[in-house]
Design a protein that fits this description.
Layout: E1 2-9, H1 13-22, E2 24-27, E3 30-36, H2 38-52, E4 59-65, E5 73-79, E6 83-88, E7 91-96
Antiparallel strand pairs: 1-3, 1-4, 2-3, 4-5, 6-7
């Protein structure tokens, strides 16, 4: 079990209420759970993914400790911008997807 943090932006009251029932709301849109099991974390993420289709201009980021990942933490993102942690020459960097340009 490890510390899990969820940061939200422009989500519905339904999503905020669900997260507040599962985790402690440390600041508006910032949720934390000090000892969340991987199974519970996955169930929370499944609900967030299911409900996210009804969100507009929202984003959700979930972070937790994961020893096998660059920087010792894992990240999941719903919405924009998508984020990936990568290791480059011993440094952990945040890689963001480039926005697609329509012509």
């Amino acid at each position: 079990m490890s510390m899990t943090v969820v940061v939200t932006r422009n989500v519905s009251d339904r999503t905020r209420g669900f997260l507040a029932s599962s985790m402690l709301e440390m600041a508006p849109g910032v949720y934390s759970a000090p000892r969340l099991s991987p199974a519970v974390r996955d169930r929370i993420w499944d609900v967030l993914m299911e409900w996210f289709v009804a969100e507009t201009e929202a984003s959700i980021v979930m972070l937790w400790q994961e020893a096998q990942m660059p920087g010792g933490q894992a990240v999941k993102v719903l919405g924009e911008p998508t984020v990936e942690l990568v290791e480059l020459d011993g440094l952990v960097l945040t890689k963001r997807s480039s926005p697609t340009v329509s012509q």
